């Protein structure tokens, strides 16, 4: 066997709080598990925090380099939730897939990510953070409001497109009450696009970008829902636009220092692309996730995708200085 892969995930549970969609279906996890087994690894699927931490801490020190945690845990509510697994693995000197805790925490915060990347010339819509349900709008209508720290289009529907002060007062309080932190931004009226970046610092490559098509005018939680995955990808992106998106995506990955993979979403306004968000923990489901579709457009298989991601995780562990403290402490 090549080693052991732990699929750390939140498998769907009917008792999951209704505001969370950050889970994986059993079908998707079973497909990932079998694909990784076929690659020659042992696989363990773990979804309980106590179980995950116990297993990792009990791996013999001299064997930890042969284990790797596939980070699918996204949790809910905490601003640190996508960093749980990377921080734990780094502290225990266990390899993991994807980016560091620092990258995960930053990119989960849409507003801070936009502020940071905009300072380096990445185009973004004008935006501000709202944490008071009685706040008045700072920009001109139309505006778009959404949770600042959620994925899977959670909390987004047609009502989030705000045309006037009456709609603002009707929609904003409930969003702030439920999600605590809301980002408000100038509405971008054009088509949405997505692109993935693979690789570790200094060795990034991108997929071809694609338009994301979906019913209606808003990419809502009904569209993004794992029970009703109805989006489609259109790869007929004009050459000039494609080149711009690839340039922006590579620059974003480098500025963030991402590892393994990220998916970046843009939206057009007057045919120019503006950054929507960076997703450092994108889904890998062969059933309902966008990133595998971007990968497979190049003619490569789902199995090759998972193999490549695992290789990148082991490479990061061998060469990145962020693991050095844990390695020294665990000698």
Number of strands: 13
Rounded to the nearest angstrom, the distance between the terminal CA atoms is 24 Å
Work out the helicity level: 25-40%
Number of helices: 11
Oligomer: single chain
Order of helices and strands: EHEHEHHHEEEHEEEEHEHEEHHH
Write down the CATH topology of the largest domain: D-amino Acid Aminotransferase, Chain A, domain 1
CATH top level class name of the largest domain: Alpha Beta
Tally of separate domains: 3
What's the pLDDT, averaged over the residues? 91
Parts with pLDDT < 50 across at least 5 consecutive residues = 220-225
Shape: globular
Organism: Leptospira soteropolitanensis
GO molecular function: ATP binding; D-alanine-D-alanine ligase activity; metal ion binding
Domain ATP-grasp: 114-311
Protein name: D-alanine--D-alanine ligase
Give a verbal description of the structure:
The chain is an alpha+beta fold. The chain is 35% helix and 19% strand. The protein has eleven helices and 13 strands. Strands 8, 9, 10, 11, 12 and 13 form a six-stranded antiparallel sheet that branches. A four-stranded antiparallel sheet has the order 4-7-5-6, with helices on one face. A three-stranded parallel sheet has the order 2-1-3, with helices on both faces. The two termini are 24 Å apart. This is D-alanine--D-alanine ligase. InterPro entries: ATP-grasp, ATP_grasp_subdomain_1, Dala_Dala_lig_C. It comes from Leptospira soteropolitanensis.
